[in-house]
Amino acid sequence: MKEVNRFPAPAGELGWFLTANNRHHVFAKPEEIENDYDYVIVGAGFAGIMAASKLAENKPGASIAVFDAVQVGMGDSGRNAGFMIDVPHVTVGDPKVDADHHKWRLRLNKVVIDRMRAIKQANDLQVDWDETGKYLGAREKKCFPALDNLARFLEGIGSPSTLLDRGQSAAALGTDYYLKTLFTPGTILINPAEVVRGIATTLPANVRIYERTAVIEVKEGSSPSVRLANGRTVRAKKIILTVSAFVNHFGIKESGRLFGINSFGALTRELTTQELEQFRGVAPWGCTAAHPAGSTVRFTSTRRIFIRNGFTFSTHQCTSPQRVHYARKQLRKAFEARFPRLAHVNFEYVHGGMIPLTRNTQSLFGSVGQNVFAGTVGDGLGITRSSMLGLYLADLVCGVDSGELRYLQKTNKPSWCPPEPFLTTGATAKLMYEEMTAGEEI
Ligand SMILES: Cc1cc2nc3c(=O)[nH]c(=O)nc-3n(C[C@H](O)[C@H](O)[C@H](O)COP(=O)(O)OP(=O)(O)OC[C@H]3O[C@@H](n4cnc5c(N)ncnc54)[C@H](O)[C@@H]3O)c2cc1C
To answer: Which band of pLDDT confidence, cut at 50, 70 and 90, is reported for residue 95?
Structure first.
């Protein structure tokens, strides 16, 4: 494996993290880092934290260290739109992913959601967590078939959904922007930074989390090790890499099959009681777009509006401040189009992040070297699916067999990607085309 030369860094102002009630929680101190652990996990997003949680359950006596280059909740797990989605995303992806696969994915998503809910309840975690489902919204008539097809598909796999017309959607959302929506009840809306950090605070004492501790090299072998940016070398019996698309920089065989797309999010200031008038009787909600390049919108339980849109290809898995700056204009336009009466309300936070993807939506999952394992999600359902990869990587390294694990091992094979510069050129052209054809869905 090779030395890492690209590291995650905050991009813009990370609103979810900065408003998280547990942002000041102190995890383990760097001077407490030991030379040897049973297990080392690199990356403390949802994948890494859920891997740690399951490892600690499988091996209560084991020593487990988790290293992350940034603070827990500052990575992409804390920069997303906070949709913990249960239902398959059939509007995107490989047509070869058929109904049987989607049933599996639905089942696995539910395993994860149930586990997170159980952790939250057992520890009485006070985190922003709304079990209100989600809407898939269409403004453009050309996008109606996407809603109808998904409704039919969900019916086929026994998953409930309801189609709403413009009036019904307006009553539910407090904006009449959407001409048609599809409601599905199983999604949970969260402050993702608060939830991933919250779950991290519940891990038992044999799990030590070291924030702001970048790993610059992983060495496979009978006694694998990680080299930290602070010069220390830490050995483990087994190493799990849950670093999202940054896995490309660790020099594993599958490097290059994962890529990242930058997207951007904005969180308004808290709305005043007067501004909340237009939401009288409206519960917190979240709406994703029927068009792949459309805007995601939330009315949060913390009285803010969240907007996500914009796609740029992330050649090196980094999000520059310039890109965050350019994203503001489009975020603002989407906000004002949906909430013209709130046009005076400022964005308090605007940030950028990366959505890890593969060409066939399959994740990277499994062994990537002697005693080294990795998991990176390959589609947009990153919270549930990365958490799922973490859970089952923990089972894989501990030899805990299940049908779910075997399914993940059998199916998660990311497809080949063209090399650079063709990848960036082709992907950029595709993203530009998607944005140009999205019309008022943005
Ligand atoms: C704007 C936006 C909106 C999104 N909306 C949604 C949504 O609503 N729902 C959804 O399901 N998904 C969404 N996603 C995708 C989702 O955020 C990701 O798929 C998910 O966070 C992946 O989780 P992970 O744990 O695999 O990776 P990450 O959360 O990226 O965690 C990987 C961790 O590895 C660390 N790391 C990397 N390299 C190193 C190193 N060398 N040393 C130490 N640590 C390292 C990083 O700091 C990071 O914390 C969105 C993404 C973006 C950007």
So the answer is: low
- Give every CB contact of residue 197 below 8 A, 6+ residues apart in sequence: 17, 20, 22, 23, 25, 71, 72, 73, 78
The DSSP code for 367 is: E
Q: Which of 187, 244, 250 to mutate to test the pocket of ligand 1 (most atoms within 8 A of CB)?
A: 244
Give pLDDT tens digits for 97-112. 677 888 888 899 999 9
| Residue among 210, 203, 211, 240 at smallest CA distance from 33 | 210
Structural domains in the chain, CATH included, are 15-441 (3.50.50.60)
CB atoms within 10 A of CB 295: 27
Which own/partner pairs from 276-282 qualify as long-range (CB within 8 Å, at least 24 positions apart)? 276/303, 278/174, 278/175, 278/339, 278/341, 278/342, 279/174, 280/174, 282/171, 282/172, 282/173, 282/174
Render pLDDT for 7-41 as a digit per residue (tens, 0 to 9): 999 899 999 999 999 999 999 999 999 999 999 99
- The contacts of residue 301 (CB under 8 Å, 6+ apart) are 128, 130, 189, 284
Model confidence over 387-441: pLDDT tens digits?
A: 999 999 999 999 999 999 999 999 998 999 999 999 999 999 999 999 999 999 9
Q: Which residues line ligand 1 (CB under 6 A)?
A: 4, 7-8, 42-48, 67-70, 75-77, 79-83, 85, 214-215, 242-244, 246, 263, 265, 308, 353-356, 376-377, 380-384, 386
- pTM for this entry: 0.96
Q: What does the angle CA 158 – CA 159 – CA 160 come to, to the nearest 5 degrees? A: 115
Q: Which helix (H) or strand (E) holds 40?
A: strand 36-42
What tokens does 3 get?
Answer: 């030395």
Q: Which of 385, 393, 24, 376 is nearest to 197 (CA)?
A: 24
Classify residue 124 by its DSSP letter: T
